[in-house]
Amino acid sequence: MKQDGDLETILGYQLQRANLEITGDARRVLAPFGLTPAKFAALLMLRANPGCDQTALGRALSINRSSVMKLINLLEAQQFVERRAGRNLRTNALHLLPDGEARLTTVLRALRESDDRMSARLTAAERTTLLALLRKLGSARGRNSALPI
Amino acid sequence: MKQDGDLETILGYQLQRANLEITGDARRVLAPFGLTPAKFAALLMLRANPGCDQTALGRALSINRSSVMKLINLLEAQQFVERRAGRNLRTNALHLLPDGEARLTTVLRALRESDDRMSARLTAAERTTLLALLRKLGSARGRNSALPI
DNA sequence: TATTGTTATACTCTATAACTATA
DNA sequence: TATAGTTATAGAGTATAACAATA
């Protein structure tokens, strides 16, 4: 099978391939903890912003309010997170539970190993470059659809 | 909302964000042609390898045989592609139809515009670097799961 | 009126497992 | 036995649209 010259230089295609490769390993690592990449990202963002509401979390992650609902419902059922009374009657204040935060620390360690393993074929400098370029691309995320501000 | 320091340096998270951003625009561009990113990629790969069978296409795209089935069923219904008699009774030879190839040329032009628009916040050199790094990461794709060789 | 949470529904992409026919 | 295609099913991640309650 020949490679296709166009696909080689289509950013979206290469992103999708790399994403599946890296995310696949992350998924295997997270599964024993009952987590998925999306739930894991939500936990980290929550840890950095205790007490935030669901809409704010969605904006930070650049995902829809209804997608946040799903994640928090699951994380609450797993005792990672708690919905507390918010600053008014229509908002929730989201908090990591102490045990959830402890578990998250363990999970983060495991995920870092996965990340290192997956980026092993890059030099440290390449990895840093890649992260910077990805952030540039992803920073526009939600400026249209998910972050109507 | 604060950013989370860990998420900033987790490759999988930044890949996912960038992927959603870039693929989202591609999806909007492809939709009027009845295509999605996955179907589009299959078409390009098929154009480069006329007459290949479904399993080979799956390997080239690093996706499962059953995923190829879905894509080809749709593309055949849309008259982009045809299953012809293969080199033996259990293989299909996949071929782009002439009109499908013509349409693909138009679509490719539109997608290139999307790709350029999305990578506009990178310099040409950065875009090249990014593609090279992504290919390094994605090249392992399927060596375990999807490409048992 | 605008916003928050919620619910129901749907779509994309992919995978696994098992079957059938053929090699 | 091994491989190609097929089918059914499932899971992860997301979105849209509409509603109720609240601001």
What does this entry look like structurally?
- Two copies of one chain form a homodimer.
- The model of chain A is unreliable at 144-149 (pLDDT under 50).
- In chain A, 40% of the residues are buried.
- In chain A, helix 2 (11-30) packs across helix 6 (98-118), helix 3 (37-48) packs across helix 5 and helix 4 crosses helix 5 (65-77).
- In chain A, strand 1 (81-85) and strand 2 (92-96) form a beta hairpin.
- Chain A has helices at 5-8, 11-30, 37-48, 54-61, 65-77, 98-118, 124-138; strands at residues 81-85, 92-96.
- Chain A is 62% helix and 7% strand.
- By secondary structure, chain A is mainly α.
- At the A-B interface, helix 1, helix 2, helix 3, helix 4 and helix 6 of A face helix 1, helix 2, helix 3, helix 4 and helix 6 of B.
- Chain A binds a DNA duplex (23 and 23 nucleotides) through residues 16, 20, 27, 36-38, 53-55, 63-71, 86, 88-92, 145-146.
- Rg of chain A: 18 Å
Overall geometry of chain A: globular
- Chain pair with largest interface: A-B, 59 and 60 residues
Mean pLDDT of chain A, rounded to whole units?
A: 93
Oligomeric state as shown: homodimer
Low-confidence runs of at least 5 consecutive residues of chain A: 144-149
- Main sheet overview of chain A: 2 strands, antiparallel
Give the SSE string of chain A: HHHHHEEHH
What structural category characterises the helix and strand content of chain A? mainly alpha
How much helix, percentage-wise, in residues of chain A? 55-70%
Distance between the amino and carboxyl termini of chain A: 47 Å
**Count of distinct strands of chain A:** 2
Major β-sheet strand ordering of chain A: 1-2
User: How large a portion of the residues of chain A is in β-strands, by DSSP E?
Assistant: 5-15%
Number of helices of chain A: 7
